[in-house]
Fold:
Amino acid sequence: MELAVEARALSKRFGDFVAVDGIDLEIRSGETFALLGPNGAGKTSTMRMVSTVSPPTSGSLNVLGMDASGYGRQIRSQLGVVPQEDQLDSELSVRENLMIHARYFGQSWSDAGRRAEDLLEFAQLTDRSKARVETLSGGMKRRLTIARALVNEPQLVLLDEPTTGLDPQARQLLWDRLYELKERGVTQLLTTHYMDEAEQLADRLVVMDGGKIIASGSPTSLIEESTSAEVVELRLPEGVTIDGDLPFQVETLRNKVLLYADDGRAALSHIQELGIEPTGSLIRRSTLEDVFLALTGRQLVD
Amino acid sequence: MSIVLSGFLNPVFTMLTLGWGVGSLVDDPAALGTEDYVHFVGPGVLAGSAMLQGGFYSLWQALGALRWEGMYKNAVRTPASYIDVLTGRLVWGFLRLTFSSFAFLVVLLLVIGWSGWAALLAPFVAGLTGMATASPILAYSSAQENDKAFPIISRLIVTPLFVFSGTFTPVDSMPDFIAGIVKAFPGYHGIELARDLLNERAALGPSLGHLAVLLVWIVGGWILARAGFRKALTS
Structure:
């Protein structure tokens, strides 16, 4: 199988600080792959190494079949990068941002212009073509940044926290665009600390924490392997706790209690039979958030 | 637009106030080696103000482009490398200064009269003088994470060089010790060369000598600035 990214024992250190600690990655051509983890897990450092902007401290890294340390220029010519901060040129118009970026890839002005029209349409920004970037909303800037990453028709697109800071509507619109890219066969590597984003978009993912990969697989397989099918979220009155021998796992968090049970309804009845009356309860499917909690004992987003 | 205006109007006003204002106080223009004081100070301001602007181009403006704004960070995600970005910054600075120096040259020639085709080379010399100052300062500023030391560089290095590099008074009239220091810096050579070109007295040998000094500063700065650019853009 063709691999878009292949990393072995990849590490990145800044002085004494270990940002990425010997990870292995295999990302197949055409798939959407997510790096999931809290802030400081090493996701962005990994992305910067894959984009050949940051040299690895040790380990091997192949991107699109080329060695990242020797073929940076060739790799970058086939890569699209959506950085965490948009880094658009705020003094230029929407269209000019795309044109200038295309020129870095050696495209002629006329080719760049034609490509810009297509991308503006893809990003649903055609009517804002002449607007200065500083007048755009956060969601529009994000879509423009994604459009910019596509000017060179990349084989691999890297997206660092693509929807952080966007409202739900803007997120949904962005996910639609990314899904369309996936249907066109573009390989995507994205980082996120949103579990629902990884579940929505990713075929496979790795969970990172403290620079290491602590779990990998498809979203469903990770949920099946690491946690129960359902979760009951309880809010309890002041001073009430749940302990003792129970047929399911209990996780007490700051402001709620989670019951991990394959049958949520039965678990809730069980608690009520013990004489505990929650002030609120919710039965839901397990998510990757629960996987992270089960693996690390910590919540992903505080 | 503001760039062109400041690049053009600054030297024009400097030349007019000093050329005619101070010039009227110069008793013996012959001691300057030029026809009158305007012939002396005009070319001096042409290259000298390019030097001044070259210095500023490598302070706040450079740190902004490198660290505070995203354009350079964006550029290195394309086939361009950090070295391309560095080279591009210096080439762009050269073109910008050469362009604004041409505008200044037009005004200067209206004042001093046509002085031969060699005068048309003077704006290029001004552009090189600017970059010969910009390049080594860029080697320093690109390695900085903040602008704390910039006011000192600006006041103690860039501005004094503008004043003492022979812009307004002949360097050889200064004490030997100071003249020796001034001649090690690129500003003096750019100003001398511009002055020779605009006074119909540029000889090949000395001109190439001045040019060589400018190029050494540009290339030397470029070599040293690579480390700062690498650290800021690709760590």
In short: Chain B has a mean pLDDT of 91.
